[in-house]
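Sanity check

After download, print the first record. It should look like this:
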Amino acid sequence: MFEPSWVRAITHIVEITLCVITIIFNLSLIALILTTKSKVLHGYKYLLLSFSLCELGFSITHMLMEPILLVIGNWVVFFGYGALGAHPAGPTLLFLWISFLSQIVLCLMLHFIYRYVMVVRTEWSFLFKSWHLILLLFLLYAGFATALFIVPVIYSKPSKDFNPQIVERFASMGLSPDDVAVLKAPISKELSDGTREYNTFFMAVVTAALGVNLAAIATILFCGRGIHHFLGKAAISERTRRQQHQLFHALIVQTAVPMICIFIPATVFALGTVFEIDVGVAYFPVFTLFVIFPVLDPLVIAYFIADYRRSLKAHLARATRIFEYEHSVTSLHEEPLTDPEKQSSPVAL
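Expected structure tokens:
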């Protein structure tokens, strides 16, 4: 049996390290996007910027809170055990974490819509050729995502008043209720006559949130199929076809990584809830998957998009030349000066 404190400590180190790497990678990608000039990308760079900013916010809030979501008995319990786990600002940071996560999913949908419009429905391309319109679209869906995903959490209340079942679950994970910021919401309550009354408002909002995610996935599949079909049969130049395939493949990988990293923790959470399985400390490494995809996404974008790949190689080559020059100058200054005549003359015995 693994010691909860050891599992938590190792998970903490891994998550903090991944979050720091994510921040460095996304800041580097933002600098790359802003400094690379390309006529091919048009307004696409603004969508990439919005995605990177969401991942930055997500990683920072995750690093501060290290959140975990559980269903314990009749309660949905959402808590953070990170550096600010017991801080009064903890619930607010948990709200922001959920908001950034929801915006990442919907931002992927907007990326597919953009690619579909620019390839298949070019008559609508004016929507993405101005950063003002892209900003408006982003604010509309980000505001909707924020409201839809935060309302259930706002409905729940921070509390230190726990029933024995919640305290027992925390103990199995090596946690104390006093060390975490906890939000909890009741799924139902038992009435005096023995019947159970379900929290219809909470359940309705959560169902709507899941519906939006399913709609986003359906949109991604529809747009992806349309793009693939069009590129296979459209009468376009080979260079254009190659560029569009390149961007499409980048988008597929960029979408698959977070979907896998979110799907696995969600599956464990759902199975544990349905079958009432307490996996204890296993929740810590499982939820660490949430911070893997923000590390990989900047690498995917920099690799698949040729303009960014060339620009990154140029920056790395320039940095390498500067390093080699400084190293050679340092070596020259450190090399002792000798007289060649004295060095070549025989030594008297």
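If your output differs, re-run the checksum step. Summary of this record's structure: The chain is about 70% helix and 5% strand.
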